[in-house]
Structure formats: C-alpha cells, structure tokens
User: Which sequence fits this backbone?
C-alpha cells in the first residue's frame, strides 16, 4: 500500500501530458478497483454516457393463452423467438458506448403460481409478469463494462402481488441490475471508471415513492443530491394513450386515478438539484425541455412491449435518449434514437426518425421558450441554437 500511495503522489506531481501514460503503467500492477477509488474525483475530463429508454415488458406469463398465441405469431410472421433475450438482443447496439443504461421495468418478473390481480371476468385489467430470464436479458442491454438500472416504481411492478414484487427485485439484483423506485432512498451506481451517481424512481401510487407528493419529491431528491452530487430522477406518471401526448401544468387523471402533475414534479426535482429527469408511463412520447444545463424528457414512450398493449399510432413510437453527464446538473451531447414497434416485441430503428420529429414538435408546442429542439439526425439542442425547420410535422391529432 505504501508503494501505491507513493505512485499516486508521483502521478500528481507530473504535468497533465504525462499523467495518462504513467497511470496506464500503474494500472498494470495495481488492482483496477483500488485505482478507480483513488482517482474517482477525476471525472470531468471524461464525462460518463447515460442511455435511457422507456417501458420494457418481456412477456406476460400470467395469461398463458395470450403467451402461446403471441409466441406462435412472432415466429410465423417475423421468424423471431419470444424468449426475453431474443426480444432484446437486436436492440443492444442502441446502447453502445453507454456507461449506464436505464429502463423502466413495466411488470413483475418470475415464474410459477402468483397472486391474482385481475378478476375472472374483468375486461379492463392488465397483469404482466415476464419470465425469469428477463432479468438477465435486461442486464444484457448494457455492455459488460456498463451498469444497468431498472425502475420498478410503476403501476405494473406489483402485478404478481407483494411476494412477486420481492421476487422481481431479487431477480434483478441477482442479474446485476441496479433497482430504483423501491423506496425514497437513492440507488447508488458506481461506473467501471469509478464515477458515482444515483437514481431515484417515482410513481403515483402508495406502494412506491409517490410522485404526487411534490414536497416529498423535493426533499428526497435534495437528500440524494447532498449525498451523491449527481442524481438522475425517473418518473412514471401522467395520463395514457393517444390523447396524452401534451404536457401540461396540471394534475392528470386516467381511469379515475390521479396520475400526477408532470411539470410540477420535474420542477421540484430540478430545483432540488437533479441532473436529469426521465419520464415514462403515458405510452406515448412527450416533450422535453432544458432547465439551465439539466434536461427533462417527459416521456420516452414504449421501448419493448411484448404483451397486450395498444401499439397503434402514436403508441408505436419510442425513443432511446443518450447524453453525457459532465458533472452535477451538467448535460451535454444529448441525442435521440427513434424506434418504432411494428408488432408486440418487434422493435426497429425508425429510418424516418419519427420519434425525434414528434418530440421536437411537442416541445415547440408545450415549451415555446425552454423546449428542446431535435435535428433530423437526432441531436438535441437548445431552441435558440437551431434554425427553424418548416418540414417538421405536428403530432398526429393536433
């Protein structure tokens, strides 16, 4: 250890041009984990890259009839298998180069008997539980060196009951997926390079951190920021479906349930020090806006939905958002990758960049001054840095 401390002191005494060369030499004789801890503060020279996507459901074994029919259709029409890894493996390239990957785990994970959520004659109840291999498949979205975070603060994480929720958490943890949204304590993530950041997940329900409690949101985020500095907040809230594309400063209601005020939530999180706020839940894309150098994306829509979901336009559009975090509240080099879901579980990159166009148009409508703007190649910028684009189309229905 004395030799290791001497080596670090020697590195610090060198000019910046030589430090990288000597550090590489030290790495050959010093364990990477020790070295990472000692130089973790040196993060601004190499910002970490985070890629986030929306809702992910990799099957619904709580409905065996649907599972059999869907699996047969998937093979007959698209020559694809229905196991979770086969559903996600074609999409791993979308997260290439990410230090951290974050998605919303829309449903429970597990096999065998489960508590019944839906009554026998119900026609409007949906229960989702992906098979056990889903946990490893989610971990596989990130490279071997990346960290993967799954949010479980949503309206389907308890679809297999309380015991099923515990099983979901355990399986994700065992697969190496960081879980956020269980409680109001932030989930710490340490990248391979030694950078530390934290995640907080919220939903509009009493069994997860409640996004409707704005004072609580502000308090929980501020505590996480005081502890970890860089905090990413994810929210599962808002009304759902075709009519829910617009983002308004009001409490939204869906099927009689209060589903939160997305703008009030984002403002509270950003004011408390969040670096980014990533939304999902409406099953459609929504606007984005800049808050100084912090970024808010109100909904990334559906990413992979292999279940009984409505995938008609515009619910078939999704997005992967990637950006660099250069420090607390410092987002740069942000971009959107447009995806389109042509059938349950069949997701493609959209060559027409429809998702980018939708988010750009919605941002212009809902946040004329602070809304993000997205170029045809997906680059996210500030409105005052982009020329007007007359070819942009308005969201369908407006």
Assistant:
């Amino acid at each position: 250890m004395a030799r290791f401390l001497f080596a670090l002191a020697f590195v610090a005494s060198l000019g910046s041009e030589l430090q990288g060369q000597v550090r590489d030499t030290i790495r050959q004789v010093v364990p990477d984990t020790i070295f990472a801890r000692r130089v973790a503060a040196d993060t601004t020279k190499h910002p970490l890259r985070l890629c986030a996507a929306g809702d992910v459901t990799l099957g619904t074994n709580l409905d065996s009839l649907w599972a059999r029919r869907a699996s047969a259709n998937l093979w007959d029409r698209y020559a694809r298998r229905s196991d979770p890894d086969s559903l996600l493996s074609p999409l791993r390239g979308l997260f290439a180069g990410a230090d951290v990957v974050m998605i919303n785990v829309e449903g429970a994970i597990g096999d065998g008997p489960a508590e019944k959520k839906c009554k026998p004659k119900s026609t409007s109840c949906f229960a989702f539980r992906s098979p056990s291999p889903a946990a490893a498949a989610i971990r596989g979205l990130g490279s071997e060196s990346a960290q993967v975070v799954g949010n479980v603060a949503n309206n389907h994480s308890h679809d297999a009951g309380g015991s099923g929720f515990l099983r979901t958490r355990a399986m994700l943890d065992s697969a190496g997926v960081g879980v956020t949204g269980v409680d109001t304590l932030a989930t710490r993530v340490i990248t391979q390079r030694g950078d530390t950041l934290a995640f907080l997940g919220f939903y509009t329900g009493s069994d997860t951190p409640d996004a409707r409690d704005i004072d609580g949101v502000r308090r929980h985020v501020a505590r996480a920021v005081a502890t970890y500095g860089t905090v990413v907040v994810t929210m599962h809230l808002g009304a759902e479906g075709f009519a829910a594309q617009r983002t308004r400063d009001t409490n939204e209601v869906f099927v009689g349930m209060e589903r939160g005020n997305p703008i009030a939530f984002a403002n509270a999180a950003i004011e408390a020090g969040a670096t980014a706020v990533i939304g999902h839940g409406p099953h459609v894309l929504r606007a984005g806006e800049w808050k100084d150098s912090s970024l808010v994306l109100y909904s990334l829509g559906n990413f992979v939905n292999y279940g009984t979901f409505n995938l008609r336009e515009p619910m078939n559009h999704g997005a992967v958002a990637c950006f660099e975090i250069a420090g607390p509240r410092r987002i740069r080099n942000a971009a959107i990758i447009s995806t389109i879901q042509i059938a349950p579980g069949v997701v493609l990159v959209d060559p027409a960049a429809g998702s980018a166009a939708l988010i750009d148009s919605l941002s212009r409508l809902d946040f004329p001054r602070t809304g993000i703007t997205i170029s045809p190649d997906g680059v996210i910028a500030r409105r005052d840095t982009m020329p007007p684009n007359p070819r942009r189309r308005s969201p369908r229905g407006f």
In short: The two ends are 66 Å apart (CA to CA).
